[in-house]
Every structure is written in C-alpha cells, then in structure tokens.
Amino acid sequence: MEHYRFKTVVFLLVQLLSVRVMMGQNSYDLMAYVVQWKRTFCKTNHCKPVPLDTFSIHGLWPANATGHSMKCPQGAGSDVDTLMNGDQKLETDLKAIWPNLLAAGNDRRFWKHEWTKHGFCSNKSLPIAAYFNGAVMVHNNLIAINNKNNLRDYLAEGGVRPSTANTYNKQVIITAVQRLVGANNNVYVACTVDSQNKNVIYLKEIHLCLDTTLRNFVSCPTANTDLRECGNHTSQIIIPV
Fold first, then answer.
1. Which H or E run contains 11?
2. Among residues 173, 158, 167, which one has the least CA distance to residue 208?
3. Going residue by residue through the chain (241 aa), what tens digit of pLDDT does each one get?
4. Does the first or last residue of the chain, that is N or C, have fewer Cβ atoms within 10 Å of its Cβ?
5. Whole-model pTM over 0.85
C-alpha cells in the first residue's frame, strides 16, 4: 500500500513539473520585432531582384525577461495557409514588409517557419491572426508614421546612412533608432562577419522590443550583455549598399 502511495505521489509530482515546464515555455515578457538589413542578408544568399536598401521583418519573437527568444511546442504550419486563404489583404500587407528574400523562397513557407518556431509561443494571448496582424499594426502604427516608411529613415535622420566607406559605432546606431522607440528604450544591434575578412562586420539586424500587446515600445533587457555577433568591433559596423 505504501509503495502504491509513493508511486502515486511521484506520478503527481512529475505531472505538476510537466505542467510548470509547459507554462514556462508558453510565458513571455516581451515581443522582439526583428528587422534585417536586406543588403547584408543578400551578400551571402541568392536573393530575388527586389530593392535592397530597406529593412524587412525577419521575425516577431516572444522573448523572456533576459531578452532571449522563447522555445516552445511547435504550432501547425497549415494554420498559416488557412489564415492567408481567408485574408488576402493580410497576405498582401505581409508580402510588402515580411517577404522571403531568397530567390527560390516562398513567402508562406517563411511565415510558417517563423510561426511554428517562434510565434506559437504567444498563441494563448496572440492567436495566429492577432500575431500576423500585429506585425502589420506595428509597421503601420508605430514605424511608418511622420513621413517615414522604414527604419532606414530613422537611421538617416540620426546621421546613419548605408555606405561602403563609412563605419558606425553601435551606440550611434542605437541612438538613431531611439528616435523611434524612445531615448530610454534599449535596442539590440546584431552583426555578421565578412567571410573573407574577419575584421569587417556588417549590420545584420536590429531588434526592437515591444510589450506583449504590440502597442508600445519597451526597453530590450540589458542585464546580460549580448554581443549578437558584433564582438569587439562595435565601432566598425558597416551598413552595406
């Protein structure tokens, strides 16, 4: 009898632990709106013949209090097809701001990857329609305002412009982006190293952080230093043209 009770207690503890793990996997503190500089991406990938002088969305990632994207059970890619088939306007809007840049790439396949890997973590508070419409809402209501259409315009206003001759300090880039997100809100700058010269680094992505409603910018956590591939060359970042 005691042995049976012991096994029952162990079973219940395992179940409770599993629930806690699942709850932890699906809880998040902020959303990272990650935009990539197209020209950098296309330096190492064969891309479609599209204008490359703007940022496009890489992903919308639920993140924890340390600023790292969450790991969670994967959603169904077929849900993306169902959503897009029923909302042609949403698909058109996403194609403009969240395209698959690869020459052989398919937009829906890209969105399915982002939804199943990242977006599904927010499913309880941001179901799939709210998630993708939220990405459009951030662009339309928070970025494409005041005669600006792209994050590039905020960088230019801060004196940061694409160039093969100029290099920029990471903090200068952050300060320029803070014209959009607010002076007290930190953002992440991600880099990639040139394959031929390890001393040359290019701007890869900028991570903007938002609250879980996607309506307000918040500060990306700074408790843990995260170089995001920029290494020690944070004063030598190139924004390729």
1. helix 2-25
2. 173
3. 555 454 443 333 333 333 333 344 458 999 999 999 999 999 999 999 999 999 999 999 999 999 989 888 888 999 999 999 999 999 999 999 999 999 999 999 999 999 999 999 999 999 999 999 999 999 999 999 999 999 999 999 999 999 989 999 999 999 999 999 999 999 999 999 998 888 899 999 999 999 999 999 999 998 666 678 787 767 799 999 9
4. N
5. yes
